[in-house]
Amino acid sequence: RASLYRYDRRTEQTTQLSKARTNVTLTGISPAPDRQSLYYTRLDVTGNDRVWNELYRYEIGNERRTTVTQKGRYRYPTIHPNGTTMAAIRVAAGLQNLVEVPLNQAGEIAAERHYRQAEPDRTLVNPVYSPDGRYLLYISATQQGSTLRQIERESGNDQAILKWSSIIVSPTFHPSGDY
């Protein structure tokens, strides 16, 4: 079992978040904009290669875990600065899609906005919103290297920002949104 821990910089104490456990692995964790809860997916493998990614919300103050959806097969969730929308990689039938969906409709394919489907030799990972919510960064990777890409959400324009011969991990924006 894997567990989440919280580090308090003021007290320099680390505490285990007792109700946020997973049997196999986390496939993404994202704080809500107010930092009062965390969203994460839990990967479970059942039967013959049946992979399920359930989306949970963990409320830090009262250590309460709630299931947001057992549908959707989302990985690498990221929460929009408005707190009501999520982008994630949806995996179904062997295909990876970068999608965005209102949190209250997570798991409903008809409510998803589709941005990008991975090409057969690529994997999509780690989407992240800009601080103003206008852009969405994500990584498209192969065994030969990674590409950091940016989508302008309003137009859907998708452009490569950086091609790298190694692995790019955990893209983020400067709080100003300029970098």
What does this structure look like?
With 179 residues, this protein is mostly beta strands. It has no helices and 14 strands. The strands form four sheets. Strands 3-4-5-6 form a four-stranded antiparallel beta sheet, with no helix packed on it. A hairpin with a 4-residue loop joins strand 5 and strand 6 (64-69).
Q: What does this entry show, briefly?
A:
By secondary structure, the protein is mainly beta. It contains no helices and 14 strands.
Helix and strand topology:
Elements: E1 2-8, E2 13-22, E3 25-31, E4 37-46, E5 50-59, E6 64-69, E7 74-79, E8 85-92, E9 95-102, E10 113-117, E11 123-129, E12 135-142, E13 145-152, E14 157-164
Antiparallel strand pairs: 1-2, 3-4, 4-5, 5-6, 7-8, 8-9, 9-10, 11-12, 12-13, 13-14
Helix content: under 10%
Total beta strand runs: 14
Cα(first) to Cα(last) distance is 37 Å
Strand content: over 45%
Q: Count the helices. How many?
A: 0
Considering the chains and any ligands shown, give keywords for the structure.
14 strands, 4-stranded antiparallel β-sheet, mainly beta, 179 residues, single chain
